[in-house]
Amino acid sequence: MSRLPDGLCLATHLRHGAKGTFGALVDLLWPPSCIGCGAAVIEPDRFCATCWQGLPFISPPVCQRYGVPVPFDLGPEPLSPLAVSDPPVFERARAAFRYDGLARDLVHHFKCGDRTELARPMGRLMAEAGKALLYDTSLIVPVPLHRFRFLGRRFNQAALLAKEIGVFDAKAGGL
Length: 175
Ligand SMILES: [Zn+2]
Fold this sequence. Notes:
The chain is mainly alpha-helical. The protein has helices at residues 8-17, 20-29, 49-54, 81-85, 101-112, 119-129, 131-134, 147-153, 157-167. It has a domain at 49-58 and 94-172. It contains nine helices and no strands. The mean pLDDT is 86. Zinc ion binds at residues 34, 36-37, 39, 47-48, 50-51.
């Protein structure tokens, strides 16, 4: 697991609750920085151009059931070989990234490194990737965390992501 920049946690938590003069003071003391490398960015909770280009996004065409990339466009609702041979119990799934590189580091730091401030940008990216599903959704339910694991971790990462995804307004078309 590579190391994400330190110093983002406190500033990000303060920024999320800050408005007006206090928000401007937080930005002055801790200018927004890339959540991947710490480089200066214009807005908080964003990536710099270099990190953005390095993120392993999953882009169309994707399997309509599993959401995994398919090698070429198979029509309006392509299915992967796995979805045909072993259909999942769920109707549709989507992911923002392949579990690789910076995306893998973000997940590790979020889940195991107490980096809860990553919930907002990760939730936004998940919502963007799953906006077609969210359009028809009226309820978002996070995967529960076993009570002992919850005591050890002190938060349910799925609940934090679900909260951020819930802010996404699919009908309005974005964040
Ligand atoms: Zn960066």
